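Sanity check

After download, print the first record. It should look like this:
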Amino acid sequence: DEEDYIAELKSRLTPEQSDAIISATHRPNRALFDLSVAIEKLPMHFMRKNEINKNLSIFEDTLGGCERLLSSPVPLFYSRHTARFISVWLLFLPFALYGQFGDSWNHVTMIPATALISLFLFGIEELATQLEEPFTILPMQGFCDKIGANCNEIVTWAGQDVYKMPEELMEHLESPELNTESNLDLIEESDDEEKSDVEDKIQEMEMESDDEAENDINVEDDTSSEMTSSDLEMESDLVEESDDEVEDDVEDKLPEME
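Expected structure tokens:
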């Protein structure tokens, strides 16, 4: 298994990456570290990187659960005690079945009945022992090959016209080595475009607020001017009325004085 594992790594990864994983004390952690580095170098928005890193964290949690299953076996005393109990029970089983098979010739049918019961019980005990370490009986290599084939199929979909990817990203994925400088340039360009869009929106909002303020001021001026003209008209009316009243009073008093 170790030789097949090393050959599989060298066929899929670069010599530096395969040697780093093979020489690592904890190989899964080294593989996860390489995946995180590759995600960080991808020319995409940081929000997408965060989502991919979340899935990578879920994968790491699942890996930890599998390691706990493998490294936490059932105590050996449990297996031995179960086997001893079944053996003693089956040893005294013929004495319990002796009276039940009294009608048969010389109780001969008791022998196959005891053998059949022993077969089933020891089979259950062996099944429990195998389930203590499920990875030794599961076809793990077949599972991994199936997952790898599915992932390779998903990668082929990226070349279709419906799922056409940007040329910069396609060149990046097809290159044998990751170019960090070009990735940084792409990221800076996308950030600059987002910043410019945000600044334009802010300027538009400021201009709209200024226009609204000017309109409010013009409306207030119009209302104030209308109020002043109306006030003047009312004052002039009052003055004319007072003058008329004074004239009437004078005319009334003149005949009396005469």
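If your output differs, re-run the checksum step. Summary of this record's structure: The mean pLDDT is 76.
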